[in-house]
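Q: Sequence in, structure out?
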Amino acid sequence: MRKTSGFKGGIILSINTIAILSPGDMGHAVGQVLRTRGFDVIAYLRNRSQRTKDLANLAGIREVADMSEMVIQADLILSILVPEQALDTARNVANAINKSGTSVTFADCNAVSPETTKNIESVICLSGNNYVDASIIGNPPGSGMPTRIYVSGEHSAVMLNLDGGGIKTICLGDSIGQASAIKMCYAALTKGTFALYTAVLAAAEAMNLTNELRQEFINSQSDAYNQMEKQIPSLHTKAFRWIGEMNEIASSFTSVGVTPAFHQGAAEIYELISKVPFAHERPETIDTKRTLQDTIRSLTELL
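A: Exactly. Output:
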């Protein structure tokens, strides 16, 4: 059995090969940075979209033939997916590990609740492997401020190997769930606010008050309105990923006695956004001429 990387005696053991599931918008950018820093970055791309395959190729990520080969070669696996795929992906990885008889450190970097990450930990640990609770905050590496990867759990120090080149790793201690929890709180504000902005403008459009409200916002809430103009026209390229994330936030809040209703509502808004006629667009194919008002008008037609 191949000895995996980890943390022992105060020394961070080195890692050479990192697998990314899956190299989409965030994953391929993380992989590209890791490649430039000398890591061998691999991915198993069967059943992934052509866009994901193209992004992986763009980042120079090496494709492996199957998941068994991936777990045999990797020292560290980074799961970067939509939340609803996180648990099933961990199960598939655990099955591949059990069949191959190898060992690997698995870091779940998805926007999931503390409860969900603990469920994923159970799956990975039952296969006899190390687990790291992780979450990613910020834009993909290379777009300004460093991307923050928060980590927690007994084996989280191994993730310090990723620090640098546009990635900042922040350890939150040995408790599984802490890294996921900070992502839930952070995204509750950022993505929750974008959903609220969208709901407000859609309601105003439906009540024939768009121009009047727009002028009031410009006069008295200019910072908020600038964010509306900046963020809302591109939300349809991400909304399908954020529905599950809002539900995970709602679950997280429920577990500590805070109302889930805000983010249950946000999930409904993102589900509506994901149905606009141009929802098939992605960041590289978006119509940059579409305005905020065009977007809200299309959305309101679905109400």
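The chain is about 50% helix and 15% strand.
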